[in-house]
Amino acid sequence: MNHAPLSVHALSKRYAGVSVVEDLSFTLEKGDCFGLLGPNGAGKTTVMKLCLGLTAPDAGEITLAGYRIPEAAQAAHASVGVVPQFDNLDPDFTVSENLRVFGRYFGLSRQAMTARMDSLLQFSNLETKRDTRINALSGGMKRRLTLARALVNDPDILFLDEPTTGLDPQARHLIWERLKTLRSNGKTLLLTTHFMDEAERLCDRIMIVDGGRKIAEGSPRELIARHIEAQVIEIYDATGTSEALEAFVCAARAQSGMEGARMEKSGETLFFYVHDAAARQLLALLTQRPTLRYAHRAANLEDVFIRLTGRELRD
Ligand code: ADP
Question: What 8-state DSSP symbol labels residue 55?
Fold first, then answer.
């Protein structure tokens, strides 16, 4: 394979005259895990649908597994696996029947599917659930089965739309391990997620979109270094008003010579963004007020995301 698994150039899409994807370009090389992040309504699912040929673009070019999309979407699908946002397993069938039905969809013979079944069940930790019906599975098991189903045709590239939404930490960690294994086996992953820790752990490159437009792109480390101060102090006062807290913190900030440092308020919590050890001076002042609760931590991708897309709710 000498073509990029996915290449998108100047992609645009409008719905009812409203632009939902605007001039997006990106390329996934073999083995990449590329994260598409953005608040609700940013256009992530639409980008996935466009890449899969499920909806036609108004402008731009897409090549998936060497095929032009949407024209040759069907041929491209042989090399593609999809984990949709919502599980759409067939509730009337068992675990193994769900996999078999999908195998038939990809033209796999009964023998080929039987040969593949054990490794798929093993990969998804569902060996003991082979004959279990879907409605008897936990959310984590359903997600793992959906992932196994996406692998039936041994695809080169996987599209994962919020693969761990709704899962408990144990189930999320297991999915992450499986996705890392897939990556180290040379699979290419395109992932959307609202969990910034997930994106930070799994993705080697991230594009943040808002209103259909790219607002930032880079590795998690690059994005943090480029867009945010290195350290964050979150401060909360369990007893006083948030105004009193803000006045105290502003005074402490001035006292430690950091008037210019960025501060944000979210509900009752103050977020204080600092570049270096100057934080230590502020922390020393904060300890003088015993009712204060604070957390001092390294800046992360969520801080970048909030900085670039704002704190207002997107429904
Ligand atoms: P995200 O996945 O980032 O939440 P979507 O791609 O689902 O965003 O949606 C982007 C925008 O496009 C939203 O404003 C949404 O309402 C709109 N949209 C998505 N699909 C359709 C459609 N089939 N018809 C009209 N508008 C749509």
Answer: S
